[in-house]
Design brief:
The complex is a heterodimer of chains A (about 325) and B (about 350). With about 325 residues, chain A is mainly alpha-helical. Chain A has helices at about 1-30, 35-40, 45-55, 60-75, 85-120, 125-140, 145-160, 175-205, 210-215, 220-260, 265-275, 280-305. Chain A has a domain at about 90-265: MetI-like fold (Orthogonal Bundle), CATH 1.10.3720. The model of chain A has no long low-confidence stretch (mean pLDDT about 85). By secondary structure, chain B is mostly helical.
């Protein structure tokens, strides 16, 4: 088990290095110097040279890369090219918005997915079961943008129940929570549709298994057998899926923040792209990639902890 | 009756099919192992004896041309009985027809501005109304289908063109090469399409090409994994062992046995990916990282529409519906293909 974890961590580190090289290369292949972009067309060559030196961009490329990675590994994200503020504190500020959105969304998703998936599995082959399948198929086909805008139309434009955009800050906890409701529900509904298909497939799998047939043969009703024996087994693959889907929620949050104008990671990233604030783009891209990789690692490890049958395999 | 044995006979005539059909049937476990729309549990499940007999029955039946025609007919019946396939196929056909039609005809020029009738609701002359510049919404919706299909087709081709050969390589070679391919795929996989597109847009600017490249590259790992896992099953079958013993070269085995056996699964996967590409494209255009104004696309129409939610909700509803229906069509089609392929999902 320890050897397994050590090997997986090794893989994560190598993957992170690969990703960092890819991000750095793509962003530094860009024609034209960042200093030129920041100062605009009117800037004198003198000023551009000065700013380039100030940003550390006159150093050799490998040196810039090493400095960047060295900084990141110490938790130092550097200063924004544009605002000259520490990127690290901007990111942690943004995370206080993005983090809750993702967690609420996953909670909404699970609350939707468990009953819908269970129902679909127990009624498999019957009309109601097919209906559950159709509902989840429709949920999956709703793009986050579309779902968000529809919720805005219904709950903000037409009825004013929730604000359509903006975030007042956590100093007003109630207002803040209220403005996170629509974004979280938007992400959560789509997530619930995706997850419900996994729940259904996983429960169906158990329903068809030999041990459940035995349980039914000795007199348990399908529901009882599933409740006592099947659900625990059915939940194992779902841990994987929830972990992987958390990663996709991180990405979904980028879109949803834009729809609802929330000051989260997504807005920070998009503003940085529009302002050519390349270091911020680099940092956030690495942060998201690292989150995805670490989530995958945790999923792999938890998978083994939950399923004793896998514990001793390499 | 399962499609796989029928298909195998259809392709290879009489001879080895009796040995091949059951192996191919057990062989390709749906599209498990991919993220998103496909199911987890397709990997297991017991095949009905009746279905199996049915499959073998088809194989026996298909000796000679009469049987072959019968196979073809029964395959059509199988397809037409699958609602996902029929509905999905119809929607996709409509989207393609609309895109092609918009190349030669739209009610108005999609970019023709007419301030006199800006934000006019639906009317006889403008069926879906006009937007904030007085452009005809229906014409813009139609023209957007081109963008969607373009991005979808090219990005899926990128993903398949790189992913399938890499997956086959990883399946064929064990050890270092396989590990290397999988690790690289993992690194790319850690990079979601949207993030890749944002980084690319920061480097080379927002455009249709940015979106296409980003989506295509981001989905390469999916194809690497699905191809590899499906190919591994085929490669471990007894008829491949026989072919090896017979002296067939690895490339010939891939071409004659592996590729035909995984082709349907791959096509289903392509359709599912297409739906994800449509989603990604709409999101990226909406974020301003893809198609740039004034070119019409559903994503940019959503972005424009959001500014006029207070004036005209319909401006947002139309492109929303278009994206939704298109995504639904492609994912149903993919679902349908893999259902008819995979006997286990029919009960």
């Amino acid at each position: 088990m320890i050897a397994f974890i050590a090997r997986r961590i090794g893989i994560v580190i190598v993957s992170l290095l690969g990703a960092s090289i890819a991000v750095f290369t793509v962003l530094n292949l860009l024609p034209g110097s960042p200093a030129q972009v920041i100062l605009g067309q009117q800037a004198t060559p003198q000023a551009i040279k000065q700013l380039t030196a100030q940003l550390g961009l006159n150093k050799p490329v490998w040196r810039q890369y090493v400095d960047w990675i060295g900084g990141l590994s110490h938790g130092s994200f550097g200063l924004s090219y544009i605002s000259h503020q520490p990127i690290g504190s901007q990111i942690s500020q943004a995370l206080t918005v993005t983090g809750p959105v993702i967690l609420f969304a996953m909670a909404v998703g699970i609350v939707i997915a468990l009953p819908l998936g269970l129902f679909g599995a127990l009624r498999n082959g019957k009309l109601t079961g097919t209906l559950a399948g159709v509902i989840s198929q429709i949920g999956i086909a709703i793009p986050v943008v579309v779902g968000g805008l529809l919720l805005v139309i219904v709950f903000a434009v037409e009825t004013h129940v929730f604000p359509s955009s903006g975030f007042p800050g956590w100093s007003q906890p109630f207002q803040a929570l209220r403005s996170l409701v629509l974004p979280s529900v938007t992400l959560g509904v789509v997530e619930g549709a995706v997850l419900s298909r996994y729940v259904r497939a996983s429960v169906l799998d158990q329903l068809r298994s030999d041990y459940l047939r035995t349980a039914r043969a000795k007199g348990l009703k399908t529901r009882q057998a599933l409740w006592r024996h099947g659900l625990r087994n059915a939940m194992i693959p779902l841990v994987t899926v929830v972990g992987l889907e958390l990663a996709s929620l991180v990405v979904g949050a980028i879109v949803v923040e834009n729809v609802f104008e929330l000051p989260g990671i997504g807005s920070l990233l998009l503003n940085a792209v529009n302002n050519r604030d390349l270091l911020t783009v680099q940092d956030i891209a690495m942060l998201v990639a690292a989150t995805v990789l670490v989530l995958n690692l945790l999923v792999d490890v938890s998978y083994r902890l939950l399923d004793p049958r896998l514990r001793n395999t390499a | 009756m399962s499609q796989s044995p029928a298909e195998d006979t259809h392709r290879s005539g009489s001879g080895s099919q009796l040995g091949k059909a059951p192996a191919g049937e057990a062989g390709v476990p749906g599209v498990s192992g991919t993220r998103g729309v496909s199911g987890v549990a397709e990997a297991s499940g017991v095949r009905d004896a009746a279905e199996f007999a049915d499959g073998v029955g088809l194989v026996v039946e298909s000796d000679g041309s009469e049987g072959r025609a019968e196979v073809r007919r029964s395959r059509w019946r199988l397809w037409l009985r699958n609602p996902s396939l029929v509905i999905g196929g119809t929607i996709v056909a409509i989207v393609v027809v609309v895109a092609l039609l918009s190349l030669v005809w739209t009610p108005y020029a999609p970019n023709a501005v007419n301030p006199a009738i800006r934000l006019a609701g639906p009317s006889a002359s403008h069926l879906l109304g006009t937007d904030e510049y007085g452009r005809d919404v229906l014409s813009r919706l139609m023209a957007s289908a081109q963008v969607t299909l373009y991005v979808g087709v090219i990005s899926v081709l990128i993903a398949v063109g790189v992913g399938v050969p890499a997956g086959l390589l990883a399946a064929q070679r064990s050890g270092f090469v396989s590990q290397l391919v999988l690790r690289i795929a993992d690194i790319v996989y850690g990079f979601p399409a949207l993030l890749a597109a944002i980084v690319l847009a920061a480097a080379i600017g927002a455009s249709k090409t940015t979106v296409t490249l980003a989506v295509g590259i981001a989905y390469i790992p999916v194809f690497v994994r699905v191809t590899r896992s499906n190919a591994l099953v085929v490669l471990s079958s007894e008829y491949v062992l026989a072919a090896r013993a017979y002296g067939r070269r690895p490339l010939a085995i891939l071409r004659r046995h592996v590729v035909p056996n995984i082709a349907t699964t791959m096509i289903a996967q392509m359709s599912l990916l297409f739906s994800l590409a449509v989603l990604a494209e709409a999101a990226l255009d909406y974020l301003g990282l893809g198609t740039t104004a004034p070119t019409a696309s559903w994503g940019t129409m959503l972005q424009d529409g959001q500014n006029y939610l207070g004036n005209d909700v319909l401006l947002t509803i139309w492109p929303s519906l278009a994206v939704f229906i298109c995504v639904l069509g492609f994912s149903l089609l993919g679902e349908g293909i893999s259902e008819t392929r995979d006997a286990r999902s029919r009960r």
